[in-house]
Each structure stands twice: as C-alpha cells, then as structure tokens.
Amino acid sequence: MRLKATSVCRLAWLSVALAGLASIPSPGVAAAEANLKLEALLIWGTNDTRSSDPTHKPVTPEVQKKLQELPFKWTSYFVINRKVLEVAPRGLTKVSMSDKCDIQVKKLDNSTLEVSLFGKHEHVLKRTQALPKGETLVLGGNAPNATSWFVVLKQTEAAATAEPK
Amino acid sequence: MMDHDSQLKLQAWLDGELAAQEAAQFDERLAKDPEAQALLGELKMTRAVLAGFEAGVKLPEPPEFFWSKIRREIEREPGRVAPSRRASLLAGWRRWLASAGAMAAGMAAVMLIARSERGPATETSLADSGAFTYHDFAARTTLVWLSYPADNELARNDEADTVE
User: Fold this and answer.
1) What ipTM describes this predicted complex?
2) From the list A19, A66, A120, which residue is nearest B111 (CB)?
C-alpha cells in the first residue's frame, strides 16, 4: 500500500516536471520563418459521374479519399479551379477561385493561417487555423441541384525561407 | 377525474395505437365519460392547430453529416461510473494524488504536443455565415460547413456550369 502511494506521488511530481519542461521554449521556435506554399482547390461535389463542363477534371485519388472520409453523400468530385499560393511571413495573399469565390490567406506563424472566404466579394468567413503539413482545411456548402462546393486548402511543399528585409 | 394513465391511453387511442380489443373498451368509456370526451376534443384541436402550422424543416447540411454530428455527441458521452465505496482517508488522498497526477500528465502531454505541432486554433467569425466546424482527427482534416450563402451563391446558378 505504501509503495503504491509513493508511486502515485512520483507520478505526480514527474508530471509537474514534464509540464515545466514543456513550457520552456524550444530553439526551433526562434528559427527563421519561411514562406508558406499552399494549394487551393475549388471543387464541385455531385452524384453525377461526369460533369457537363469538359474543363472539370476529377479530383486526384488522394483528394477523393479525403472528401469521402467526410460524412457526405456525394460520390464524385470535380476540380473547377486549382491555385498555388505562396504566403510570406505575416504576408497576405488573395486569390480568385471563381467569379464569385475568392480566398485570402494571411500567415500568422509557421503553420497558422488566417483564412478568409469571400462570396460575391462579400466577406463570408474569417478563420484562424493551424495548418501544418498533412493537415487539410475544407470549406464547403450546398450548391444547386443537391450538389456542393468545396475549397480545399493544404500545404504543398516546403517553401524557401523568406529573405531578410 | 381521469388519471395520468387514462390520459395517455386516450392519446394512444387517438393516434390509433391501441390494440383492437383495448380500443373497443375505450370506445365504451368515451361514450360514457364526459371528461374523456372533453380531453379528446382538446387533443384533436391541438393536433389540428399544430398540423396547420407545421413548417417544413430544411437541414442546412446533408442528412449524413447531420446524423454524424449526433453520433459523435453520443459517442463522446462518458460511460457509467461505478458506485464508489466508502474510502478511508488514505484511499481518498491516493485518489486525489492520482487525479492530480493524471491531470498534470495530461497538461504536460498537451503542452508538449502543442509545442511540436500546433493543433487547429479555430476561430470562426462573421455573422450569418452559419458555419459549423467538424474535425476528423484520423484524417487530419478540418471541415467548415457554411449554410451561407444559401444554395451556393459562390457558384454560378446555371445547371450547365454549376460551380466555377
């Protein structure tokens, strides 16, 4: 019994020590910030197997899998537009995904972004989002005829370190 | 005076949920019981009024998405806690230490994870966007579903080229 109580005490102290250790800033935090390279896709979700617009290409299997993991009813996804954007540290980049859809990305730190969505040039959504490599941000909504639209945003590759000003 | 069970039975009779024999017995009672007749009239009137004002509910998201939210909330509910025994002072102290240790370990783990890779620091704003956030940890995907603009004003509305 006494041994168990001692073990619990040790666990508590170890945890406190770990918490203290975690609060010490790591050297990587102070590392030079790099530009962030992002891929933005405007996607149409439908149950039709093909799009009437020949410029609409099916999404890659990776994106298809990603969207199918979400609880949606659509079976086909077509890329309407694809943009690669590079955002400088604390920089702001705005791209037009369609006549009615623009997105604006501001880099807050190495992996945190402020993403704004504009519909018909009206500011619809502003969101602060950590988007490290491997994470995906999907914005979506309903479209006519029981279809849907999506804006899929993710990091593409490590971009070059920003040049010092 | 009708008791609660009789009132429920009356409602079941009105909804056609009683078995044939039981319904026949209730028919007899209804013929003789003015209180039951009054309640029946009231229930019928309420039903008619509700039916008249019943608005169609349109989900802002696909039904699968809606049900997934409900399922996740159900799964998130904690399991039953076993009834606790009367504990000695030492046992109480040990439990407190264990809880504190677990809590501290949890905090340490969260802080360590946060240092290596920041979690989604989510903040959704702007009124009327009707945004709903769904995070799939396994797929490392965050979904923000917007009920605004309704029916995709981001896209063109002609059928031939729905989204552009």
Assistant:
1) 0.75
2) A19
Helix H, strand E, coil C: the string for B6-42 is HHHHHHHHHCCCCCHHHHHHHHHHHHHCHHHHHHHHH
Helix B20-32 / helix B4-14 crossing angle, nearest 10 deg:
110
CA distance B8 to B19: 14
Whether residue B97 and residue A5 make contact (CB cut-off 8 A), yes or no, is yes
Q: Is residue A92 part of a domain?
A: yes
**Residue A76 at interface with chain B, using a CB cutoff of 8 Å:** no
- Angle CA A107–A109–A114, to nearest 5: 40
d(CA B18, CA B34): 20
CA distance A60 to chain B (A): 16
In a domain, A21, yes or no: no
Evaluate whether residue A98 is within a structural domain. yes
Give me the domain span that covers residue A42: 32-157
Residues B35-67 pLDDT 10s = 888 888 888 888 887 777 666 666 656 676 777
Q: What does the alpha-carbon distance between residue B120 and residue B130 come to, in Å, rounded to a whole number? A: 19
Task: Look at chain A and report how many structural domains it folds into.
Answer: 1
A 123-162 residues with CB < 8 A to B: 123-130, 132, 134-145, 147-149
CA–CA min distance B145, chain A (Å): 5
**Tens of pLDDT, residues A66-125:** 998 888 889 999 999 999 999 988 889 999 999 989 999 999 888 889 999 998 888 888
Q: Based on C-alpha coordinates, what's the Rg of chain A?
A: 22
> What is the Rg, in whole angstroms, of the alpha carbon atoms belonging to chain B?
28
Contact B164 A81 (CB under 8 A): yes
A136 in any annotated domain: yes
